[in-house]
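To: structure subgroup
Subject: Chain for Friday's discussion

All,

I'm putting the inputs and outputs inline so they're searchable in the archive.
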Amino acid sequence: VKSLEASVFDLSRAVTKNDGKKAFSVLHKLFAEKEKPELILGTMIMAFVDMYRAKVAVSSGEKANFAASCYNYRGREFRLRNASYDSRNISIKTLRKNLDSLNEADRKLKIRVTDEKIILEKLLVELLRSEQ
């Protein structure tokens, strides 16, 4: 059984590859495992923040791991390397848009505007559309 973090990183990777079928499959598996939507979203945010940090570092001429020295990644530098690889075909502009979508979904989850699962499913659709 994969950890929540590993599953959500698989979900995020599927989004970056524009693989909607896999992304929804992973999300529905997490729902079936009774994972809390807040934890799923929080981990997705973490994955996309990692991608953004790595992408900005690389675009400024540094290695992806440069962000590790600016943020608390001690012992987890591999996340930035993986994030750099996963975001190689995504623009910084798209990553910013994705972070805005993630932030809006987080806000909706916190104020409980609708069913939590629907919020996450709509988020996936938004993220997948932004990758096109």
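Points worth raising on Friday:
The chain has one domain: 4-130.
DSSP finds seven helices and no strands in the chain.

D.
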